[in-house]
Design a protein that fits this description.
5-stranded parallel sheet, about 400 residues, 11 helices, single chain, alpha/beta, disordered N terminus, 2 domains, about 20% strand
């Protein structure tokens, strides 16, 4: 059968359309590859830890960040992919890091202790941009910085500054501080002592918890005696591992509220945060992970989302280009905390409001009105530029 001249262009056009339909939606699709690495040492059994940190805390946050990046990325010709490893040992984690670098992954989120993070930096050097989603050590933001390390986890100083601001605001300025024996407890307590001085809070008693007794049986007898002393407005607990802190409320000598790592606590995130569209984030995370979002999840999510925002704005997946944009004045991240977040260009710390909450309810969100700063109130939390010896963007 001979086709008429008028039909030939139409059929050719249809055939060409069929051929084009088989091609990728974006022939020049921009690929962005992320790594996620996790290792936390076994802390041993904790006496009162009824709700331990989920084993995939952090990983689920990174996965949600990838999903959120793809929600807009698929329309912009971007493909965001995550490769993850939860390692059984520090050496296994460092081997996984080396493998990612060999595989040309240049954007890596880590949920590891501070010392492991330092070892990771020695391996990666200037090959990758690392995001700290787990370590809160002040030294990493104060004088032990790297131009290739950004922090989405808040430091101990940011958390304790948020708490001290609130105590000052409530005029609860005389505190009884109890600190545990572990290294993290001591780091938290030292950060709080600095915050207390910074925000005119008076530590009238400062005691170390050294008891080995089973507080499940002895709390009502031991803690009233332990908390005798001068008059105080509030008890502040530094017990990161939760060895004794949950037994302090309602067992103090004076009838006083308990804050710190137990009672009303400061963290990067809390399941009770619902304002500023946060309920939608909480619901999406719950559907994905089948559990509430933790502070570590939020830090990992924020790291991945920050990169996604930078990729969209720069139209690049090149690590140096993304790093410069993230540390620049134009970067802002909408992150369900009521204010846009940004990175401090001197030490790589993500500026962010800090929720103060007890287990089932949000109390407040720091920083608070009245604590002024010449640039942004968010810089009243943690070490400000003049206090830090880091200058990573110079």
């Amino acid at each position: 059968m001979t086709l008429s001249l008028s039909l030939r262009p139409l059929l050719c056009g249809l055939a060409l359309g069929a051929c084009l339909a088989t091609l990728p939606a974006h022939a020049d699709e921009l690929g962005v590859r992320y790594g996620y690495l996790q290792w936390q040492p076994d802390r041993g059994p904790a006496l009162a830890l009824l709700t331990p940190e989920p084993e995939d805390s952090g990983l689920q946050g990174a996965r949600l960040g990838i999903s959120d990046n793809m929600s807009s990325g698929r329309f912009l010709g971007q493909r965001h992919e995550l490769e993850s490893t939860i390692a059984a040992s520090e050496e296994a984690l460092l081997e996984a890091l080396a493998a990612m670098l060999e595989d040309d992954i240049r954007l890596i989120v880590l949920n590891v202790p501070a010392q492991t993070l330092r070892r990771a930096l020695e391996i990666s050097g200037d090959q990758a941009l690392l995001f700290n989603a787990g370590a809160r050590d002040v030294a990493l933001r104060l004088d032990d910085c790297s131009p290739y390390l950004l922090h989405t986890a808040p430091s101990h100083a940011m958390l304790t500054d948020a708490l001290a601001q609130w105590l000052n605001l409530r005029r609860w300025r005389s505190v009884f501080l109890i600190s545990g024996q572990h290294e993290d407890d001591q780091a938290w307590a030292e950060a709080f002592r600095r915050s207390a001085q910074k925000f005119a809070v008076n530590v009238v008693a400062d005691k170390a918890w050294t008891f080995e007794a089973d507080m499940r049986r002895n709390a009502s007898a031991e803690l009233p005696l332990f908390t005798q002393g001068p008059e105080y407005d509030v008890v502040v607990v530094a017990d990161e591992r939760n060895d004794f802190g949950d037994f302090v409320p309602f067992n103090t000598w004076l009838p006083r509220p308990v804050v710190g790592t137990q009672g009303m606590a400061a963290d990067a995130w809390h399941p009770a945060v619902e304002a500023w569209g946060a309920a939608q984030l909480q619901n999406r995370f719950q559907r994905q992970a089948e559990r509430p979002m933790t502070g570590t999840d939020y830090a990992a999510w924020a790291a991945v989302r920050a990169v996604g925002e930078a990729v969209t704005r720069t139209e690049s997946a090149d690590m140096p280009v993304l790093r410069d944009y993230l540390l620049g004045d134009d970067f802002e991240l909408a992150a369900f905390k009521g204010r846009p977040l940004s990175f401090r260009d001197w030490n790589g710390q993500l500026r962010q409001p800090i929720p103060l909450a007890h287990p089932n309810s949000l109390v407040a969100m720091a920083p608070f009105e009245g604590f002024l700063h010449q640039h942004t109130e968010l810089d009243t939390l943690g070490y400000d530029r003049p206090e830090s010896r880091c200058r990573i963007s110079d």
